[in-house]
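hi! just following up on the protien thing from before. the input was this:
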Amino acid sequence: MLRPERMSKVSMAGSKGVMPAVIETIHELNLVHLSDYDGSWAGFDNGNPIEGAEDASEKLVTVRALESALELSEEDTAPGTIDDDWEARLERIRTRINELDDRRGEVRDELRRLEERIDRVAPFAELGIDLDLLSGYESVDVLVGEGSVDDVEAALAADDDVRAFETFTGGDTVAVVAAPTEDADADNVVDDALVGVEFARHPIPETDKTPEAYVADLEDRKRELGSELEEIDAELAEIKDTEGSFLLRVEEELSIEVQRAEAPLQFATSDRAFIAEGWIPSDEYDSLVDALRGAVGDGVVIEELERADYDRHGAHSHTEEVQKGTPSAAEDEEDTADDQQQTAVTDGGSAVTMGDEPPTVQDNPGPAKPFEVLVQAVNQPKYSELDPTIFLFLTFPAFFGFMIGDVGYGIIYVAIGAYMATQFDSKGVTSLGGVAIWAGAFTILFGIIYGEIFGLHVLGDVLWHDLLNVELLPLNKGLEPGASEFALGWMVVSVLAGIVHLNIGYVLDFYENMSHGLKDALFHSGSWLLMLNGIWIWIFSEHGAGSKPDFLFETFASDGPFPIGFNGFPEMGLFAFPESIPVLGGFLLTAPLLVFLIGLVMLAIGDTVEVVEALDVIVNVFSYTRMGAVLLAKAGMAFVVNLLFFGAYEDPDGAFHFLRTHEPSYVAETYGGEATVIFDGLMHSGTAALLGGLVILVLGHLVVLILGVTSAGLQAVRLEYVEFFNKFYEGGGDNYEPFGHDRTHSED
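and the predicted 3d structure came back as:
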């Protein structure tokens, strides 16, 4: 639908004693979008959470931490009930999981340290020296590390405190044995001598084993820890299988309990009474009244404060008059609640008390529902403005299909969309799957019109020529020799699509502005309609045709690529300015230009600042030529891939043919020297070339398929968001989030 679902503001007031029952009832009903009380009423404060909220919150944090430790998901879990001893069961699970998780952390830390020790021993293995020979000396210093042997030896030789030294090398590792002089004062003579040398020192393991034996022991310990880690993971997996559903049920129940317990934070409360307000779909008001009456009888006063209108310039500027309260509420309202409410509400309850805007419930038919995710990607529609989803549904797939236009690619897009829509639980992913299905369907439709399947015209030849004997179809994309007029023709078609699309946007804006009166709509929206259509009718008119591109008039001419007999609009001249008038002398004023000028004057009267944007009626339309550009680019990529694999030739009439069913020799045998082989094709060039060509064929079409999403998809979205939405859509609404919870794991 063009409008969101109609919403009503409701008030619920009563004594503090019935508040828990009211909260439970509206929570189970899952219909009321609660308004937040801002604390501005005399005598009323925000309520406090119901007793037990803090304890439930702590347990909820615990449960979610356990789910995280188990890497628990909602798949393969079944709903059920929670036993009375669930808290004791939860504590046992928590204790065991924490023990296992702590031990797992310890094992992983030890494994990390083992890996580091194994890495440190590797340089010593290169030396081929037993580790016990590298330590335990009193008269010499031993160092092992990595660096330049020449630099090390030069530094030691130049140091007066080093009496003698010897170096040993193995790979990049250097071992230094040095004896300090008897009068050397420093404890670390060798370290001091190597201060200016790049030398990365390795600590020497304290063991009397060979490096190989030392590493073998470390590897044994590593395997033991790995086995222990597997046992821990296996036990956690067993807990996940046996207790996963229970944890999800407890989490859901605790979430509901916390949500209920914290509801008073949104209420206005006094010592003895409370007032809660919220938004509800207007059609559900009676259901709310019946549910509360069944739960607390006359203990609560229920009132429909307003039924919000759809004025885009302020949802509260126009509201329907509604019957305040209910007969029973008016007669039996408790004195205390009535006194407290009168303090909070002006005019005896006839005004909106909590000044929030109504939330938005997008109300679109089933086929258009998936496209709501594309609208929300920009911004949630305001309750008071038109929802553009239906227009996105009608135009986005058509733009996408126009740009790709290939039956083969379309079938794959539909298959991918169907998989996304059926195999994922995420609403966003399933919605995108629905969008992909529609985009793929229109890609197939335009592919039939173009007669293409994976860039080949096989479908067109069979369907339109052999079966239906239609001459006009299939339409050529304009890449083949002798069909270049189609390439420019698609640019003209893209421009026309833009004109129609922008007209829809301005008409919607006109409709929106009608709420402020016809004059406002005419000067703010009608002016743009006049300018848009006036200037483009003039562009496609014969006035000044000599200075305009020929393809504007040839595209739809009887002998053009789209032969409908249109050669341009007539001049429609009104009068020519006298030659004596400077600048304009002799200029012919035509009806389309007059329409444009009238629109420009109206725009200046309505909003002088917007006059500087008047040329947008030309610039915005030119943006749509990107559709024709993407069509040619994607078709060109598929064309090149097929040309490389199949090869092609041009016959004497200038027609282009892929060598799908013939060898290159067929051309010479059939046409002699009158036909030209453009490329022999890898499939006709031997086994190795055939195999390589198959790889190019598959990967090439896969690239075109992917780029179809990133180019055609993004360009279509850009045209919708930037060119179309900007004409009438603002967004920024609040999503309808009713107070309640849909149970998926636990049962009442």
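Residues 211-261 form the longest helix (51 residues).
Residues 323-352 have pLDDT under 50 and may be disordered.
cheers
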